[in-house]
Amino acid sequence: MKKSLMIILQIGVIIAFTWIGKSTVSFLHVPIPGSIVGMILLFFALHAGLIKLNWVQAGATLLISEMLLFFIPAVVGFMQYSWLFSIKGLGILFIIVSGTALMMIATGVISKRMLERKGGESRRWFPRFFM
Q1: Which residues, other chains included, contact 33 with Cβ-Cβ below 8 Å and sequence gap of 6+?
Q2: Where are the chain's structural domains?
């Protein structure tokens, strides 16, 4: 019972940051989703030590493990508008494959540069923010 209550409170902290992000976006009229701003704020709060990792870790782990449930509405929408995907399917497939390939390449390059940095090798182009 105590563990369940702790997880509910941790999910509440994550949701609170999401609400803060949404409020910030609506106040500043920024064209970024409020949930993304909220997660960025949570990241910086964790990085600054304002929030300890164990305050949100179990709740975040539960949410990530049940992430498939969050995609069910997207799958139902896909089934409802399958005719649209049959018409523009090749274009959508190209965008998905090329976007995935670009992200994999970018992740590999950044990971390689970060590992080189730890080894003390040259890192001329790497942004100072990531160092």
Answers
A1: 25
A2: 1-70, 76-131
